[in-house]
Amino acid sequence: MAYFLLYVDDIVLNASEDATLCRFITLLSKEFAMLDLRTLHHFLGIQVKHQNGGLFLTQEQYADDILHRANMQQCKPCATPVDTNSKLSTTTGNLIQDTTLYRSLAGALHYLTFTCPDIAYVVQQVCLFMHALRDPHFNFLKLWSCFLPDLTTENHRAGVLTCAKEDRISNLPEHLIDLILERVPLEEAVRTSILSKNWRYRWTKMGALAFDEQFFNKYSKNGAFGRNGFIMIIYKVLILHKGHISKFLLDIPNINMFLDSFEEVDQWMLLLSRNGVKELILTNSSQSYKLPSNVFSCLELRKLELENCFFKPPDEFEGFVNLNDLELCNVDFGANLRGTEINLPQLKELSLFRCTNVYNFNIKATKLKNLIVFESPDSMVLHILHNPCLAKVFMSFLKPIDEFVRDERKTLSIVLSNLPKIESLYLDGLFFKVSYDLTFTSQVLIAEKLPKLLPCAISSLKHLCLLYYELSDLDQLHGALCLLRNSPNLESLSVRFLEMEPQAIRYDVGPASDHLEAANCLDCTLEQLQTVEITYLEGSKPELLFIKLLLAHSPSLQKFTITTSGDLDAKKILDISKDVMRFPRASPKAEVVYLNSET
What's the pTM? Predict the structure, then answer.
């Protein structure tokens, strides 16, 4: 077998046997004028050095030529090529008039990556701005060229010569190896055992184990308890694992297809409770899973995410003292927690999605900063909101709430005025509604008459988002105006009007329209309001009067975006735009932008 490499008039020729090589050279010499340079030592700018057991390729001379071309052969060598956080701009600095030298050097550096792949990132940065080269780009190129002398030193050469004998990955710091293993699927992490003896069973010390949806989709076809069944695989991993498990992610599939109970999951939770787990993520696509009591003994937890579970802590449970982030989805708190206070002194993030019996979830979280409550209308809203550290609140119930009837100690106006650090507030229209019929079929009533001015203004509020609002409903209108009137530093406002179903009850627009047309409807100026976004506008009279009110009371307004309902025809949209154009504007810089629902 012979190997033949040809570039223009340069040929590299090798063969498995000397006789074959000589015969091949003789045949070529009869057809072409050739000069045999014997042993290969230089080819296309690459030097070839013969070592025991192979060839060493280097571009040492080629790197020197680049330095001479850039007139930087006397520069001091630098060990690190570039700061990976440094960012070059396409607009900063003067344009380079003659780009010939820069392009030549960049192309030469690109070829240098053949034997120096560790400079590939730098070369990529150098070549990013070929279309508009500026002085900072050339300075960056020259600065980085200081690294080239190090490529020609004996130390660099010795390092390259020994790289084949070294296991560089195994010599990485322990925390970097852990980060590498955590970012690959568990199956691939196990396979790292074949890299070298240093990596054998290295995965058994991983701090994070993830049995996610991808894992179950791959192994559930093997059943649960077969040789490669997903239950047996999880057991093997946990048995072989050594040390603490800081993070554990478990996605439970439709377990009824394989098991009659959650007995195996309970055993895994028991093991975790003895391993100092700090982050537990449990998603469940099966029937509701009742958390075993040992989960509540994981006092080192920093993050807890639960889905489709039954939450009933033991009587002696006082709380998770180290928990920072709690996310609960489709969690049922039962009826036996009433009065039991759960202490979460370090909690900063709390999210409740479609949870039930949440009024029994009585928590004490004095450091809570971000709160999300979605479709959990029976939550302890007033109790949770009574927190001085809250900075971001999102509440969407999608049906009236009845908690204000139960809680007689606090009022909504007092709670809203006791949020000294609130910056972002997201509320749906039903936040200001209350139903006395738990079937939510009766006429809804307002919980309390909100005053025009709260006991204390919400001075820290910067961003307000009103979701699913029906301005024809006086209760929701009064709530929106109260928030605007008591937010002197509000900068952005977003309102999404309620999409009315054909069978929905329609409110009489007369009372709301009369209130919006009253002279003292909004007896204040929104001095700091800069952006307003209205979505799902249907063009009702209260909606248009509300827009008119905002335009007339916002002297700093810069942009007002209106997105109409997808059910409106072109004529209706045109009529709306004509009406809005006639409205007076307090800000001469206010720009009104119209978007359709498909944008």
Answer: 0.66
